[in-house]
Amino acid sequence: MAEEEESLDGLELNEESWWAHDAEVASSGFFTMLRRLPLLVRDLLKLSWQTSKVDTAIMVGATLVSEVFTALGLLATTDVLSQLFAALPTPDRVLAALPAIGLLVGAMVLRAAFAEASQWARARLQPLMGRTVDARLVRLTSRIDLVAFDDPDFHDHLQRVSHGANRGANQLLWAVLETLTGLIGLLAVSGALAVLHPSLVPLILLATVPAAWASVRSARVGYQMSAGLAAAYRRQSTLKGLMSERASAAEVRSYTMRSYLLAEYDRIFRWVVGYELRAARRQQLAGIWGQLLSAVLTGVVYVALGLLMLAGAVPLAAAATAVFAIQRAGGATRAALDGVNSAYEAGLYYEDFLAFCAEAEARVPADGTVKPPVDLDLVEVKDVTFTYPAAEEAALRGVSVHIRPGEIVALVGENGSGKSTLAKIIGALYAPESGTITWGGVDHRQIDADALREHIAVIAQDFTHWPFTAGQNIALGRHDSGKDLDDVLAASGADAVVARLPYGLDTMLDPSYRGGTELSGGQWQRIAVARGLYRDAPLLICDEPTASLDARSEYAIFESIRRHAVQRTVLMITHRLASVRWADRIYVLEEGCVVEQGTHAELMGLEGVYAEMYTLQARAYAQEG
Ligand code: ADP
Ligand code: MG
Fold first, then answer.
1. What tens digit of pLDDT does each residue of 48-100 get?
2. Beta carbons of 557 and 549 less than 8 angstroms apart
3. Model confidence over 244-257: pLDDT tens digits?
C-alpha cells in the first residue's frame, strides 16, 4: 500500500493551474451541506410542483400511503402469528387465521400498488424536470448581459452548470424520495412495534445504528472524493473533447498533438483511478465494520427479545413479528441513508445551479421601456469609456461620435484600437461603463433594448456560422420579413456561393450533419453580408465584412452596400482605406481614443495618422498592381 502511495506522489495534480476553478464548489463540508439540504429540497419540490402538480402530488402522496400499509401489514402479521402460535396449529387455527392472512395480503398488495404509483409519477416527472431545469438555464443564458461571456469566472461556472444541473436536479429528486420512503418506513415499523410493545422500539432503532454509521462514513468519503476529483474529471473531459471534436481535429493532426494529449489523458486517468481506489477502500472498510457491529447488535437485540419474552412482557407472536420488523427497519434505514448520501452529492450540483441562476439573474440587464422611433434619428455617443472584464486596460476611452440618419460613417484604425468594441456598444450589445449614448435624444438606458436591436443589422467581424441551412443562415428566423431573398443574394455576392451548393439554399452549412457542407472564410462572409442586408433595419453596422475577400469582391460588395444604403444609415469598419473614401465622415481610432475625424479630403489635408496610413496602403496596392 505504501508503495502505491509513493507512486501516486509523482502525480500530484493539485498544484496545476486548471485545478483552482472547481475547488470552491466543493469547499462546503458534509454537515454544512446537510444543514442546507432542507432549503434545497424546498426549492426542488417547488420546481417539481411547477413542472407537474399531479405527478408531484402522486409521487409524494403515494409514498406516504404505501408506507402506512407497511405498518398495517406488520400488525396483520402479528395477528396471523398469534392465531397460528396460540396453541399447536390445528385446521381450526388455520381457518381462524384466514381473515388476518387476507388482511396481510391486502396490505402487501396495496403497499406495492402505491409504491408503483409513486415510481410511475417519478418516471413521468424526470424528463419534465430535466426540461424545466435546462429551459431555466438557457432562458437566462440567452438574455444575460453579453459582457458576462467575457468574464472567465462566470464562463467557468456556466460550463460547469450546463453539465451538472439536469443531473443534479433529477438525482436530488430521486434522493429526496428515497429518504422520505426510508424515514416513513422506519416510522411505520416503529409505530407498529409500539402497538405491540413500546420497549421494542428502542431495540429496533439500536439495531440500525451500525448501518447508519457506516453509511454516513461512506458518504463523507464519497463527498471528499467528488470534491477532490471534480477538477480532474473536468480536465479529463476537456482532453477527451480535444481528441474527438471537429474544432480541434485538424490541429491535433497538423501539430501531431496526439501522443502528447494521450499521455496527458493517461497521466490524469491514472491519478484519478488511484484516488478512487483509495476512497473505495476506505468505504469498504467502513462497510465491513458496520456489518460486524450490526451482527453483534442483532445478537444483543435477540437476547433482549428473549429476556422480554421470559419476563412475559412480549408474547411469542409479537416477538416473531419483531424479527421481521428488525429486517424491515434495517432496509428502511439503508434506504433513508442512501437517500441522504445521494441527496448530499446531488445537492452540491443543484446548489451550484441555483447559485448560477441567481448570479445570471443579476446579470440580466434592466431594459428600458421606451420604444425607439421607427425611423432612425440622430445617434450620439458621448464620452464613452468601456473596459472588458478580463482586460486591464480600457478598450475605449472618452470616445464621442455621432451618426445622422442616412449617413455613411466609417471607423478606421489599427487592430485592437477599439473599432469592434465601439460598434458593439452602438449595436446595443455592451453598455458603456461611463458616458452616454442617445437615440434621437433618448438615453439608451430608457430604451427597450430588444426593440432597439430590431432597428439594427450587424454584420459582425466574428459572426456566427449557424449550423443551419444556407437559407436559414441568411433569414435567421425571418422568412416572412417581406424582403426578396434574391435581391439580397445578388447584392452580397452570395448568389454565386449558393449556386454551387448541392441543395442550394436548403444545404446544411455544417459538415458534421448528414448532407452538410463547409464554406470557405470568404464564402461565409458573403453569407454574413446577405444576412445583414436581409434584416430590414434602418441602421446597418458592418464590421470588416470583407476582410477575407479578394480586392475585386470587396469592391463589388462595398458598391452594393452603398447602393443599399440609399434608404439606410451605415456604420462601416474596415482596414482597407480605399473603401472608405466615399464615407460622409471618418473617425480614426487609436488605443481606444478618437484621434482624427472628418471626410477623406479633410483627413488627407490634416496630414496626420489617416493620411499616413492611406499613403502607405495606396503605395502597397500600387506595387501589388
Ligand atoms: P479592433 O476591432 O479595433 O481591432 P477591438 O474593439 O476588437 O479592436 O478590441 C479593442 C481592445 O479590447 C483590444 O486591446 C482587445 O485586445 C481588447 N478586447 C477585445 N475583446 C475583448 C474581450 N472579449 N475581452 C478582453 N479584451 C478584449
Ligand atoms: Mg475588430
1. 998 999 999 999 899 889 988 988 888 888 788 877 776 666 777 778 888 88
2. yes
3. 988 899 999 999 99
Q: Cα–Cα distance between 318 and 204 in angstroms, integer? A: 13
Which run of H or of E encompasses 511? none
Cα 570 to ligand 2 centre (Å): 16
Joined grid coordinates for residue 523: 464564402
| CB burial of residue 180 (10 Å; 0-12, 13-18, 19+) | buried
Pocket residue to mutate for ligand 1, from 421, 430, 461, most atoms within 8 A of Cβ: 421
- What span, in angstroms and rounded, lies between the C-alpha atoms of 324 and 80? 13
- Tell whether the torsion through CA atoms of 350, 355, 359 and 361 is positive or negative: positive
pLDDT(178) > 80 = yes
Question: Beta-carbon neighbour count of residue 240 at 10 Å?
Answer: 12
Distances (CA, A) of 105 to 70, 92, 99, 191: 11, 20, 10, 20
Does residue 9 register a pLDDT over 60? no
Q: Percent of the chain at pLDDT above 70?
A: 92
Whole-angstrom distance, CA of residue 361 vs CA of residue 186: 41
Residue nearest to atom 15 of ligand 1 (CA): 416
- The answer, yes or no, to whether residue 541 has pLDDT greater than 70, is yes
Note the pLDDT tens digit of each residue in 398-420: 999 999 998 999 999 999 999 99
How far is it between the farthest Cα atoms of the chain?
123
pLDDT band at 262 (very low <50, low <70, confident <90, very high): very high
- For position 437, what pLDDT does the model report? 95
419 CB within 6 A, ligand 1: yes
Question: What pTM was computed for the model?
Answer: 0.75
* DSSP single-letter state for residue 371: P
Locate 552 and state its grid cell: 475585386
Question: Which helix H or strand E contains 220, and what residues bound it?
Answer: helix 200-244
- Is the predicted pLDDT of residue 477 greater than 90, yes or no? no
C-alpha cell at 537: 433595419
Quote the DSSP letter at residue 370: B
Rounded CA gap, 371 and 143, in Å? 19
Helix, strand or coil for residue 96? Answer: helix
Q: Residues 542, 565: contact at Cβ < 8 Å?
A: no
- What is the DSSP secondary structure assignment for residue 583, as one 8-state letter? -
Counting Cα atoms < 13 Å in the Cβ hemisphere of 185 gives 24
Q: Which positions ≥6 away from 414 have C-beta within 8 Å?
A: 575, 590
DSSP state of 13: -
User: Nearest C-alpha to atom 27 of ligand 1 is from which residue?
Assistant: 388
Q: Indicate if ligand 1 lies below 6 Å from the C-beta of 388.
A: yes
Find the 53 Cα to ligand 2 centroid distance in Å: 51
Q: Which atom number of ligand 1 is nearest to the Cα of residue 418?
A: 6
Q: How many CA atoms lie within 13 A of 322 on its CB side?
A: 29
